[in-house]
Amino acid sequence: MAENTAGGRSRLKLGKRPGSELEQRELTLGFVPLTDCAPLVVASELGLFADERLDVTLSREPSWANIRDKVMMGALDGAQMLAGMPVASQLGITAVRRPLVAALSLGLGGNAITLSRRLFARMQEVSGDELAQRPRTADALRQVIGADRDVGAPPLTFAVVYPVSSHNYELRYWLAAAGIDPDRDIRIVVIPPPQMVARLRAGEIDGFCVGEPWNSLAVQGGHGHIAITSDQLWRHKPEKVLGATQEWADRHPHTLRALVRAIMRAGEWLDDPAHRGEAAALLARPEYVGIKQPLLDLPLHGELVFDPGAAPVAQPDFNVFHRYAAMFPWRSHALWFELQLYRWGQVEAAHDLEAIAAAAYRPEYYREAAEALGWACPLIDYKPEGLHAGEWQLAQATPESLLMGADAFYDGSRFDPQDPVGYLESFAIAQHRVLLDTLRHLNRPRSSRAARMVDSAGEGTS
């Protein structure tokens, strides 16, 4: 299905060269300076967009709000997006009511929760040797919060990058697992990723959840300690997506297919360990992430420094771009994000959950490109999470079974996409604004093909 070019990259053999049917050749795609913008950067710098007859300009944006507004208003044709953005738009809770779709996942993992040195020192005082263990729990933080409450001190302030970001839900998940109510016991503010370290250094916030390289920058500067990574919270969790408005996607199907093919090939290139150093060098350039290459090298090579002055710690699969079907836009992932919006009171009305997930995430583009590239591809759209502590085989794939990564949750919980309301009911700390009985009545189990297939999604090792 593909042949190698002189540069070692695969070139599609599609019968005719792509390009003659493109509705639009010149495109502008937005990104935020983070390590996981790498698939867009690689597709541009290695000529993979050009292979598809696309002329793509990458636009560095300062915040996720900029990404949202520019895509919705047509100033950007598409963008690296937070995984929850298309879901929130389909639920109609965005400022501009224009639905977004995710045509592709851009990878797994890549985030961490970082605490200020002052807060970490206070936690050490009450925890003994507990913080030497990994993953670090928020139990000591709960004690600090209780002590502050007893003396009438103001709540601690933590930052996330956007209200419907995975970062917001990761921080909340970690806190709630220790009995901390993120809506009552602390204060959460929104700060763009590039500003996080400066705000931490200035003492304006006590911690944050953000993607790399901003956690590593805080540790290297002596301003913070990494408490836990997103992969420790949920192994191989979904992170960013390639997003566009639903209207643009419907009007430019061939162009979107070409984008997906190019970015999927970039993801495959990125997951070759021999290419990670080159990727770090590209990202270090000022027009992309714009920080020193060594800070990008470590996490891209599966290592992380958790504490100032400490040695790097192995973090295999900290960033996964291609392996384990990392770029497949699972509708079960969309459903998980949808449930986080319900859990934390961001949705006021009951919806057909499966319909929202199906509208937001569009795996048909991945499947078509995977067939052209000769990749194994999932046959199902939904899969349970939290069942596997190690690698496992997805049986429902074509043309052969597919190796998948661990999917265990930090607290040992499980997510069954056939019982979404039951998942919501399993959490002791939540801020529901919708009666769960109403949500359950609207989302009774169905005998859909996706629901039937998910029961036999695969076999795993634990």
UniProtKB/TrEMBL annotation:
Q: Does the keyword Oxidoreductase apply?
A: no
Please report a single Pfam family linked to this protein. NMT1_2
InterPro entries (alphabetical): NrtA/CpmA_ABC-bd_dom (IPR044527)
Q: Enumerate the subcellular locations listed in this protein's record, separating them with semicolons.
A: Endomembrane system
Give the record's keywords alphabetically.
Cell inner membrane, Cell membrane, Membrane, Transport
Annotated Gene Ontology cellular components are:
endomembrane system
CDD domains attached here?
Answer: PBP2_NrtA_CpmA_like
> Which PANTHER family does the UniProt entry name for this protein?
ALIPHATIC SULFONATES-BINDING PROTEIN-RELATED, BLL4572 PROTEIN
Q: What is this protein called?
A: Nitrate ABC transporter
Source organism per entry reads Acidihalobacter aeolianus
